[in-house]
Design brief:
Shape of chain A: globular
Strand content of chain B: 15-25%
Pfam families (chain A): ABC2_membrane_2
Organism (chain A): Myceligenerans crystallogenes
Distance between the termini of chain A: 34 Å
Order of helices and strands of chain B: HEEEEHEEHEHHHEHEHEEHEHEEHEHH
Number of strands of chain A: 0
Largest sheet of chain A: none
Structural class of chain A: mainly alpha
Number of strands of chain B: 15
Number of domains of chain A: 2
Keywords (chain A): Membrane, Transmembrane, Transmembrane helix
Order of helices and strands of chain A: HHHHHHHHHHH
Protein name (chain A): ABC transporter permease subunit
Radius of gyration of chain A: 24 Å
Distance between the termini of chain B: 20 Å
Largest sheet of chain B: 6 strands, mixed
Family (chain B): Belongs to the ABC transporter superfamily.
Largest interface: A-B, 60 and 64 residues
Shape of chain B: elongated
Helix content of chain B: 25-40%
Number of helices of chain B: 13
Oligomer: heterodimer
């Protein structure tokens, strides 16, 4: 590797030969090279994907804004748990606690006070309504619009990173933010619950005791599902991000979308429209507190999220391939 | 006219071993924004191994032309060939060999200069994965940023930001380097350093395309010049040719100007009295003949020097009065 590294340096003076072939992996584009291509243009035509992905993810998590929001998201379940614990007292919950009605309400809040199962799950559902989608929207806004307003997108386009690849790399970065954010919320809620009430209150909706392992994989499932849901929001946000140079436009658009959806969901007369609204999917998470588990709601939510994902990504791709760099 | 030929052959042919003698070529390049043509029918030719200065007033289409060359913007009409391959179709083939600094440096304020370059290096196809750090250090060294490498970009001065942009263009071994206003924000030392870097690239056979509105800069560094005005190529060709495009003159200082003019006109050499001496048109004659004529007529010659038209003067003529220039330029220059 060191030999190829040395030859790849500009000082090596090998300006007229493609010197990087030594370091090229299996993705060397020799095979793709048209036979008529000018002989002088030797060497790889694109950098290894993992290298670009690594650079992107490292950049995403170095951004002070991302770190601040992730910190805030981690703190919220702790604050909620402690506050509810003080307000309701430890006696308010327990195996005999009131059952769930299928949507977050006072009953859920009551058991969130102490349970290492309900607190992370309840926090996740609450935050999925607004703050987590906004986090993802912010990441998506920075990914394309923000980068372009800095002029930094040009650097990669000129490297070159093809536009399709750029969208892929940026999507992975946005997905990573959603995944890490959801994980932190659940982890922080879980640990707070454990600290406040140990393994008490690990119950399903019907009041059955759940094993520790049961709780863990249900929570893991919740994180995975939330990450996919957030990526649906991220895909739409990326489409907006590819169409503007102002990251704020992305965040505000997603915020507006969430608020409008929220309002529409409150209006019973618009019932037939509700299945088409993305935030409706969040209620699917209540599947995880059923015993035995039923995945109807989560599955439906996933289909809904998948549709938004496909539409968002298609629009983003259409936009990114035609936009000026 | 001989001087023009001389200048043309003086251009190093370093890149010719790889095939085409042209590093970049456009045909009928046109770009419209909302119905207004920003670039209109540009036929550009950048010879391999040359340092081509792209001149033009603000808004003349320099940056748009460069952005089209690099595939950042799709042209409304026209063909582009970069390093022998069509753009933007073969961008993945061509761009790894092209370094560019377009529209100022674009970096992230919260990362250090080195981290910013590492991010860029990760996407450079020609750099081996094990050699990213070495390439970055090397590029930082070349632009004189090694000591400030670990400072945040936010804390960089305008000149340092510009240098970092240049470093990014020099990360990998290049065949063509495109610099859009590289001396923006640089102090005189920084400007000299850019000149040195361009000369260094030139010596290695790398083709350089520099856009600038600083004429002295272009005059000092370039072998060829392209002049754009209002989206149209007004002139292009070797720098020397452009400078000599006005009729060549000899400026003679003599104590007796009136007699000198008379003596020359007797020999059918066009001459006129100027405030600083006698200006002699040497299109049809040689400086030696002029001096010989004067001396034989008994007129003392204190000093005689060939007058080079400054680029500034040529540029002013080209961009203000296009019609006149077309007539004046020599045959060796392609004039749009």
């Amino acid at each position: 590797m060191s030999a190829s590294a040395a030859s790849a340096r500009p000082a090596a003076g090998a300006v007229t030969d493609g010197p990087a072939t030594a370091g090229a992996g299996p993705d060397v584009a020799e095979a793709e090279r048209p036979s008529w291509a000018p002989a002088g243009l030797a060497g790889r035509t694109r950098a290894p994907l993992w290298r670009v992905l690594r650079a992107e993810v490292a950049w995403v998590f170095r951004r002070p804004r991302t770190l601040a929001v992730l910190g805030l998201l981690t703190a919220i379940p702790v604050i909620t748990g402690v506050a509810l614990n003080i307000a309701l007292g430890p006696q308010a919950a327990g195996p005999d606690g009131p059952g769930y009605t299928g949507s977050p309400g006072p009953a859920l809040l009551t058991s969130m006070a102490t349970s290492a199962f309900a607190l992370p799950l309840g926090s996740l559902m609450t935050l999925l309504m607004m703050l987590l989608p906004l986090t993802v929207a912010m990441a998506a806004g920075d990914a394309l619009a923000g980068e372009q307003s800095h002029g930094a997108l040009r650097g990669w386009l000129l490297a070159p990173v093809s536009r399709g690849r750029l969208l892929l790399v940026k999507s992975v970065g946005v997905f990573a933010v959603g995944l890490v954010a959801a994980s932190l919320v659940v982890l922080s809620g879980f640990l707070t619950g454990l600290a406040l009430s140990g393994t008490d209150g690990l119950v399903s909706m019907s009041g059955d005791q759940l094993t520790f392992g049961d709780v863990l994989w249900r929570l893991a499932l919740a994180v995975g599902w939330a990450a996919l849901y957030l990526m649906a929001v991220g895909a739409v946000a990326l489409a907006i991000s590819a169409s503007t140079e102002h990251p704020m436009v992305v965040v505000v658009s997603v915020l507006a979308g969430l608020i409008v959806s929220g309002v529409l969901m409150q209006i019973d007369a618009l019932e037939p429209m509700h299945p088409y609204l993305l935030p409706t999917a969040v209620f699917g998470l209540t599947d995880l507190i059923r015993d035995p588990l039923a995945f109807g709601g989560m599955g439906e939510g996933l289909v809904r999220a998948g549709s938004y994902l496909v539409i968002g990504m298609s629009l983003a791709y259409a936009r990114i391939t035609t936009k000026d760099g | 006219m001989t001087t023009v030929h001389a200048a043309a052959t003086a251009v190093p042919e370093a890149g010719s071993a790889t095939g085409t003698a042209v590093a970049a070529r456009t045909r009928g390049l046109r770009k419209e924004y909302r119905g207004t043509a920003v670039v209109d029918g540009v036929d550009l030719e950048v010879p391999r191994g040359a340092v081509v200065g792209m001149l033009g007033p603000n808004g003349s289409g320099k940056t748009t032309t460069i952005r089209m060359l690099l595939g950042l913007v799709a042209p409304t009409e026209g063909e582009i060939e970069l390093l022998g391959a069509p753009m933007p179709h073969d961008a993945d083939l061509v761009l790894p060999h092209v370094g560019a600094l377009v529209e100022g440096p674009g970096f992230h304020p919260f990362l250090s200069g080195r981290e910013n370059l590492l991010r860029q290096a990760a996407a450079e196809p020609l750099l081996a994965s094990g050699g990213l750090h070495a390439a970055v250090s090397d590029a930082l060294e070349r632009v004189g940023l090694a000591r400030a490498a670990n400072k945040r970009y936010r804390a960089y001065s305008l000149g340092m930001k510009q240098r970092l942009g240049l470093a990014s263009a020099l990360l990998a071994p290049r065949k063509l380097v495109v610099l859009d206003e590289p001396t923006n924000g640089l102090d005189p030392a920084g400007t000299l350093e850019i000149r040195r870097i361009i000369a260094d690239l030139h010596a290695r056979g790398v083709t350089v395309l520099v856009s600038s509105h600083l004429l002295a800069e272009v005059e000092a560094t370039c072998t060829h010049v392209v002049v754009l005005n209002e989206g149209v190529v007004v002139a292009q060709g070797p720098l020397a040719g452009l400078l000599e495009s006005g009729s060549p003159t000899l400026l003679v200082s003599t104590p007796d100007g009136a007699r000198a003019v008379e003596a020359l006109r007797d020999r059918r050499i066009p001459a006129r009295l100027a405030p600083d001496g006698v200006r002699v048109d040497t299109t049809t004659t040689s400086p030696a003949t002029v001096i010989e004529t004067l001396v034989r007529a008994g007129i003392g010659v204190d000093e005689a020097r060939r007058e080079r038209t400054g680029l500034e003067e040529v540029f002013a003529r080209l961009t203000h009065d296009v019609g006149d220039v077309v007539g004046e330029l020599g045959d060796d220059l392609e004039v749009a």
